[in-house]
């Protein structure tokens, strides 16, 4: 099985969510379930039934996060420098119509289309990896081939610039 990559920020989000579930959510729901159980008949106790269901959801999510953390390899993009596009890069591209877009190459767990974060395994991510500033290429899109040029590459957010 091929390695699954994640940025340090992505790993931190997973760890933070896991910690929140383990240290805050799960203990809180456990107390609520215990209180609901003390009320008597559990078969008709909606608070108890809902609490048990919520505990299962929390445990399932924690299991998922733990597996993803074990299956991913952290790649720190700060180890790379432009002009070559590698994992974690922010890439500014311009298409033939002059439209400019900024993408960040990330792992599949970090994809966020609203922020322009695309997977290194996506068609666009695969097309960009290994390229450098000034490279022109044609990529396949759902609406047909599209010519693009790599305008700039950075390993720090271009949004702050």
Quick structural summary:
By secondary structure, the chain is α/β, with parallel strands linked by helices.
Structure description:
- It is a single chain.
- This protein is α/β, with parallel strands linked by helices.
- It folds into two domains: about 5-75, Transcription elongation factor, GreA/GreB, N-terminal domain (Helix Hairpins, Orthogonal Bundle); about 75-155, Chitinase A, domain 3, CATH 3.10.50.
- The protein is built from three helices and seven strands.
- It has helices at about 10-35, 45-70, 125-130; strands at about 5, 70-75, 90-95, 100-105, 115-120, 135-140, 145-155.
- The chain has a five-stranded mixed β-sheet with strand order 5-4-3-7-6. Strands 1-2 form a two-stranded parallel ribbon.
- Strand 6 and strand 7 (about 145-155) form a beta hairpin.
- Helix 1 (about 10-35) packs antiparallel against helix 2 (about 45-70).
- It is elongated and about 70 Å long.
- The two termini are about 40 Å apart.
Characteristics of this structure?
161 residues, Helix Hairpins, Chitinase A, domain 3, 2 domains, two-stranded parallel sheet, 24% strand
| Assembly state of the chains shown | single chain
CATH-assigned homologous superfamily of the largest domain: Transcription elongation factor, GreA/GreB, C-terminal domain
Mean pLDDT, all residues: 92
Count the helices. How many?
Answer: 3
The tally of domains stands at: 2
Low-confidence sequence ranges: none
Largest sheet: 5 strands, mixed
The string of secondary-structure elements, in order, is EHHEEEEHEE
Shape: elongated
Helical/strand content category: alpha/beta
Neighbour order of strands in the largest sheet = 5-4-3-7-6
Sheet-strand content, in percent, reads 15-25%
The top-level CATH class of the largest domain is Alpha Beta
